Amino acid sequence: MFASRWISCSALSLCLGAGIAQPPQAPAAQPAQDLILYHGRILTGVGLKEGHPQIVSAMAIGGGKVIAVGTDAEILRLATPQTQKRDLDSAHTGIFVMPGLNDAHTHMGDAGRQKLSVDVTGAASRGEMMQRVAAYARTAEPGAWLLGGGWDHTLWKDSALPTRQELDAVSDGHPAFLYRIDGHIALANTAALQAAGITAHTQAPRGGAIDLDGIGSPTGILRDTATDLMEKVIPAPTAAFSMRGDELAIDDAVSHGLTSVQDFSTWQDFLNYEQLEKQGRLRVRISEWLPFVDPLPLLLEHRAHHDPNDPMLHTGMLKGFMDGSLGSRTAALEAPYSDDPGNRGLARFTQENLNAMAIERARAGFQLGFHAIGDRATAMALTAFSQPIGGGKLVATGHRDRVEHAQVVNQADVARFRALGVIASMQPNHLLTDMNWAMARLGPQRSAVSYGWKTFWNAGVPLAFGTDYPVEPITPFRGIYCAVTRQNEAGTKSWYPQDVLTRSQAIYAYTQGSAYAEFAEKHIGRLMPGYLADYILLDRDLMTVPARSILGTRVLQTVVGGKTVYAASYAAPSSAP
């Protein structure tokens, strides 16, 4: 993804751990140092994959890149009169430095707009959800739509889906349309259904469904592609509203230690990011995905719109959806849901159509990433990746194609991931939510091989970790905690512990694994000479604290390209450039 014009600087470095290759030694002449960190515990990223993580005490930064890492004495001798020096142990605070985290799966635009709209995330009952809607409706302009979401019926005592009549009662005449937390089903009130012309006789598009009640009327629940019928009539947000939401989402990202995100938002969001970059206000690296279903000429136009070698912002893979989610019972399964025997979920494509589109886009040089939760959806994605495109190549050849989520996977298909070089892009934090009801959906046999991070790792399948923000909070530390414990946040419930990862493996997947997934592993994900100076300061050592303590990790400072983009109130932000 990044051009080879990025030249690595050789510099003095100290490597620890058996079998770790020594980097080149420093030349006699060194570039000027902007900043030296010393007396610290700095995780460089070297040796993480092998289980021998390198820790050094000092690091030199210059020109937005890492110049050198090593001992205090080795690095301090590189200082010039202009060099800023920061003693990480001066206040005995236990500051821990590590590569910036890279969220391999976000929806920043949706997250920002949700913050400015009806946010019912975490509502513990349908009553609480409706109270929040009513409060928002009282402040809305006449005729304005009530949009947003975040509701999760699995948190409620009866676990029943909400209805349009309940939403009618609190929306004060406004059309209302609120997505479930996973974004795969949504609730519309009567006014919204009427605006979209949705009736009992409306045919849902392939991969979607319109729920009907006992007398054949719409309940208000639209599933997966059926939500497109509503999206067509919802007024587009203003440019100012969209920009404000994107800024809030970026604030959220950098405050939680993310220096890079791989994002699926709208083209308007990308244009917003581009504007922020031109103004010098884009504070996180963004690889923006494009919709797999868009016509190829439009995809080529959008790819050519922005420099693909821009390390701060560029377009990346094409994102397609094979199915829905387990929580909404729309994930496509080979066998029916254990708690809904007549239902195998919704597949959005026929295999024939998927294959044809994948071949066309692979020939145009696009990386493909397919959302696939269920085992049937994952199998369809892998079959598409294995199609020949000519010259002895397959769709997946050289493209680092990805399956996003890969929650329920037939064990025979794990070998297909490895053979095709397909990346398993997963979100461990989903298990914190799903373990409360996934057993009911899947039954014990499928549950035992679901969310199989270690299974993929042991099979040699590349792992990339993210959050699926705003489906889950953007904090990466929930995901790291869950990856190394497979326990709920209270530590009272476990989920098939044979698939736990070590801390080194989990952090690798959240840094170098994610970088590899966007073709950036030679530039980000490690703190080594020549790498971009993307790093974070934490209030605790993730390699040594008790596992439960990982959940409470606080980010003191986030640095992108040597520039501080976030500093907590107690982090002394003036000590870095």
Word description of this protein:
With 577 residues, the protein is α/β, with parallel strands linked by helices. The chain has three domains: 1-100 and 526-577, Urease, subunit C, domain 1; 110-231, Diaminopimelate Epimerase, Chain A, domain 1, CATH 3.10.310.70; 239-525, Alpha-Beta Barrel (TIM Barrel), CATH 3.20.20.140. The protein contains 18 helices and 26 strands. The strands form five sheets. An eight-stranded parallel β-sheet has the order 8-15-16-17-18-21-22-23. A six-stranded mixed β-sheet has the order 3-2-7-24-25-26, covered by helices on one side. A hairpin with a 2-residue loop joins strand 4 (58-62) and strand 5. The longest helix has 17 residues, at 239-255.
Give the terminus-to-terminus CA distance.
28 Å
* Alpha plus pi helix count: 18
What is the share of helical residues?
Answer: 25-40%
Question: Which CATH architecture of the largest domain is right?
Answer: Alpha-Beta Barrel
Shape: globular
Highest CATH level, the class of the largest domain: Alpha Beta
- How large a portion of the residues is in β-strands, by DSSP E? 15-25%
Q: At the third CATH level, what is the topology name of the largest domain?
A: TIM Barrel
> Mean pLDDT score, rounded?
92
The biggest sheet, with number of strands, parallel, antiparallel or mixed sense and barrel status, is: 8 strands, parallel
Structural class: alpha/beta
CATH superfamily of the largest domain: Metal-dependent hydrolases
Biggest sheet: strand arrangement = 8-15-16-17-18-21-22-23
Segments where pLDDT lies below 50 for 5+ residues?
1-30, 570-577
Number of strands: 26
Please state the CA-atom Rg, rounded to the nearest Å: 24 Å
